[in-house]
Amino acid sequence: MDQTLKKTILGYILETNTDETFMRRVKELRTSEGSAVYHTLFKLLAGIDIPQEKSDEHWEKALKHRQEMMQLLGRNIDLISALSDYLQTTTNFLNHPRLIEASYYENVFHETIHDKLTGLFNRPYFDEAYSQQISLAKRYNNDFAVLFLDIDNFKEINDTYGHLAGDETLRQVAEVINTQKRDSDVAARYGGEEFVLLLTQTDNVSGFIFAERIRKAIENLKVYYDDQCIKITISGGIASFPFNSKKPEELLQMADNAVYLSKGAGKNRISHFKEEKRRYLRVKIHQPILAKELDFSNSQTFAGTSKDICVGGILFENDTALPLGALIKVKVPVSDSPPVMLIGTVVRIESHENGRYDIGMTTSFKEMDKIATTEIGSILRSKNVS
Description:
CATH topology of the largest domain: Alpha-Beta Plaits
Number of domains: 3
Radius of gyration: 30 Å
Structural class: alpha+beta
Distance between the termini: 59 Å
Strand order of the largest sheet: 9-10-11-14-13-12
CATH superfamily of the largest domain: Reverse transcriptase/Diguanylate cyclase domain
Number of helices: 12
CATH architecture of the largest domain: 2-Layer Sandwich
Low-confidence stretches: none
Helix content: 40-55%
Shape: elongated
């Protein structure tokens, strides 16, 4: 069922004071939206799935049935009663009628399209709204933008303060998003600590200004849980139609990719989508490094020179071709600070005419965490700390 159409009809049910006003508004909606209106109406009011090509016919017959009942009984018959009687006595669609208060529909509808924790729309609703926006963009060439937001270091919040604190963080971030957005924008929890917004009638510049406003508001947000103050930031990515692509269906992936640029640039920032193969922002850095395989306890240490580095890994030059897939440790000197230790897997080897090689390594945070845990454990054991 089209959720937007369902929401519109439900609004008519709750807002109109008479059946005649409701039927008039539904008829106007049918003129603009087609036979899906009556198909949706039967599903919403009676919980039955009449074939869409037959829904107009049955709706007209139901209205005629109502007029006949009023003439026969000499009094007004409300629409729901007439519709129930028609479906039960004239068709085989309604075998077990039920009496349900209209507010029930409102509650069911709300739970169907909203995320229970944050109150924002859920992913299925966003996906449907996004599909509709794609159709509108193709038909009318309207500007729109997609903004992805990801809470920085959310795992650390859960690990440090507990999952209930993480839930409270999600709720308060969602509240900031809901407060900042326009009524025409669609904001949803996309999964985990990810949020996505569909910004209608919004160009690339306006979308970025809006995204920055949200970023700053969340940076200034203080989440209090169990007498502790949790400071949080977000990283975001934005892409817009037609600035980034004349294929609006591509924008969702573009905005998602742009988040990685923000993460790689140090987090707590918004990045425009850029046509790059790399997901992370790389920084050129030329200085000596030391590399060593971790698969063997007595493996050789190799001296090399770094070329560029990012959150996702490092590219360095070396006079030895390390094996693809090898787990290695790379020590990168940092001026006036202890050296940075990176652990990861060799994913690229490129030879040069001078007999040297470019070695590409992707960072494995899981391996770094495991090795750090092992080393700390050995220290505790050596000190007889339990």
